[in-house]
Amino acid sequence: IDNLRILLPMISSIQEVDSALALISRVYTELTVEEGYRIEMPKVGVMIEVPAAVYQTRELAQRVDFLSVGTNDLTQYLLAVDRNNPRVAALYHGYHPALLKALRHIVLEANAMNREVSVCGELAGDPMGAVLLIGLGYRTLSMSAANLLRVKAVLRELTIAEMVEIADRVSQLADPTSVKLELRRALRRPGLERLLHSHERPRHTAA
Description:
Strand content: 5-15%
Strand order of the largest sheet: 1-2-3-4-5
Structural class: alpha/beta
Oligomer: single chain
Radius of gyration: 19 Å
Largest sheet: 5 strands, parallel
Number of helices: 11
Shape: globular
């Protein structure tokens, strides 16, 4: 089955993508023309996880088939904070307004180029973060299996319009604490609080 996809990590310049695409094309030619394999050219994507890539989203999207945003590294590099360093880890904020602006910019640019864009990282696996990402315009989230049921349960309680309104509102706030407080306030409704603040998986219910 021709389902191979290649994702290029830590891209910070257009030249890196062009060089990688040239190598992929060369290998594809060697396999199909010189060695006779009957395979499809794999789709190629770019990870957006450094600030330089954020502001080249449109140019990157012109060259590849899909994009993926790595929120863990993007947050770290955007805020210049090593999340694994106990001296500065408290300055790492997954709901920082600068990150929200970057995420909105990326999805708008990707949509303008008609490119698939997904999100991976801790934010996508956090039910509040997933609500925020859907509201910003993302439709494909990657997360660990342990978080999947809780995230799905929360998203099913909201409409797309509600999530868009929540994302628009919190995007106007000036600090990450205010963003998290407003998200909690917006999602303070029956059936959601247990899912948002519990690490237990929701029980399966009949369809």
